[in-house]
Amino acid sequence: MNSENKYIIKAAFTIASKTNSSAVFIHADPLDDLIYDEKFLKKKIKLFFISKKKKLESPENDLFLSEAKATITVPKISLTRLSLIKVVTTLAMSQELIEPGEKIVFAVGQAENNKLDLIQIVDTSKESEIIIGKNFSKISHAANPEVFQAVLNLAIELADKGREGKPVGTIFVIGDHEKVLQFSKQMIMNPFKGYDEEDRHVLSNQLKDTIREFSALDGAFIISDDGTLLTAGRYLGAAIDDSNLPRGLGSRHQAAAGITSLTNAVAIAISESSGDVRIFKGGKVVMHIEKAPSKK
After folding, report:
1. The CATH number of domain 138-289 is 2.40.10.120
2. pLDDT at 296 over 60
3. Which terminus of the chain has fewer CB atoms gathered within 10 Å of its CB, N or C?
């Protein structure tokens, strides 16, 4: 590990200690290795890694990796630093790795530059540019954390790559499916009806391409809290006062807000025009993840 990255990591832990933060999240992908031999751990400060890889490797008995509580796996696409922090904060909260009210510190960068170049403090008790909704902490109550992570990562990848290179807009509604089905209606024949549950589970790699194909349909995907994809092309009829939503959001986002105001579900909406992803809970946007600008 080069000296600049070591300095950033040391600074992140120092800042965490000085600000009474409970955890430090280190972006592992810009690091050429995970060998860090300086004493870095402080009492009560948890260590987490962030990576596009499902499993990180390091030399045997390496203290740095072995002391980590978990590795947060993020989508294998380009994300801005701020979007990366938003995604990881969302996933860490949904998995209850951090609790509402905790302060956390991030050290992130760009993998292609092999440099950590940004330290960010996130106070989960306050609304900010990172967390924009008070219902943010309730995401973990709506769905299995592993299911939520899989759907969020899929939505971000779909927003970035589209379908056959063309942008798509759609909604994923997760959890409280019985009520969600009561407040919605089928616009087309259910394309998932009759298939075994294991073939319709969002953790199945084979389902990704199918979801990508059906993302061109009008309506929403409805997913149970255990991850079974119940239907696509579902019309969400729940109405909501759009004065509580940010300006410029259309009917898709109003539908996502409406269904989460009447149920305990969480909704993830992809904007066809911008490629941005918004998470809704309790009728409001709780997280806005901007699409990374295309590289020229």
Report:
1. no
2. no
3. C
